[in-house]
Amino acid sequence: MKDLAAQDCLTTPALRRAFAAVPREHFVPETASREGLEAVYRDAVIVTERDGRGMPVSSSSQPSMMALMLERLQVEAGHRVLEVGAGTGYNAALLAELVGTDGRVVSVELDDKIARKARRALEELDCGVRVVRRDGRDGWPRGAPYDRIVVTASTGEMPAAWLLQLREGGLLEVPLRVDRVGTQAVVTFERRGDRLSSVAVLLGGFIPLRGGEAPPQWAQQDSYLSAGETLDGRSRPLAGLRGEAVGRLSAPARRQLLSLALTEPRAIPLGVRANPSALFFFLALEAPSRRFVAAFPFPGVIGDDGLSLALLGGARTVTRVDAYGGPEAERLLLDLVGRWQARGRPTLSDLHVEAVFDNGTSRIRWGWQSG
Question: Which is the catalytic residue, given 58, 61, 198, 362?
């Protein structure tokens, strides 16, 4: 995989051997047939299944993200691994290469069609992976305890079954939803008694985990305001705001907020060049949820009454605040950036996550280790 080699994602001999040994095209044959091998080996997500609403429910994840997650999962020969969410089966095949003939990989998948396709693809390559059709939230107790558990879909909480099926000192990797505008952190946890403590955190984005009594998370998405234009048959977005903050406003206030986003902003230089992902995460955790909004390319906040808007601005780094309307949102965003600087400009490596369990449900605690 030239793209992965160029990005230095394959950092260990074991990872390089695994990615070289497992043909991705075998697990996404429709894409290979339709678009060719170049598309298959591009460093991109390949959506393979959608629901009746057209929403993605299964995919082959971005290879660089898979490599980064596998590196942090530290899978070794002889390990017993549980995968929650089979997808195409490609990730399970990589895991099987890493654990070798003395290890074992079990992949649980809720959707019968997806499970059957993954099982067939894995069996054709004689990977030795067991694919079980069941709710991934329940894990697979027959194969426990596991040295490693990896979840390939995002969730806002973790079931106790994952903790109970992980051996002491074992690692569990899961994409956690940080807020209600889609921010996700891929957290690698270590089991320490009856709790999980983070050892690594990545920025990521995964399809929501299905199952349980709650509706899928995409059905709970917050309001989204957008405006665009079509000229000479070509369309382009002009503005977009999403989040709980948008949904709580009245209809007139939402329209006024969108009209603000279409005006020319006041640019306030920050005097620093900030890491976008670090500051994004800081805002997602520290900004009031009723004020925080996601926008492209960077997030921001709105005034309490929706009469002001302030977004982080810049190109590859954050260098300014773009303010619209009154001063309230601008003041809040500048205050948040100031708090981030006062804490020593924490990055994702300074983020600590802990999961504690009470009566079968988890409580996620987020905090910064610096400052």
Answer: 61
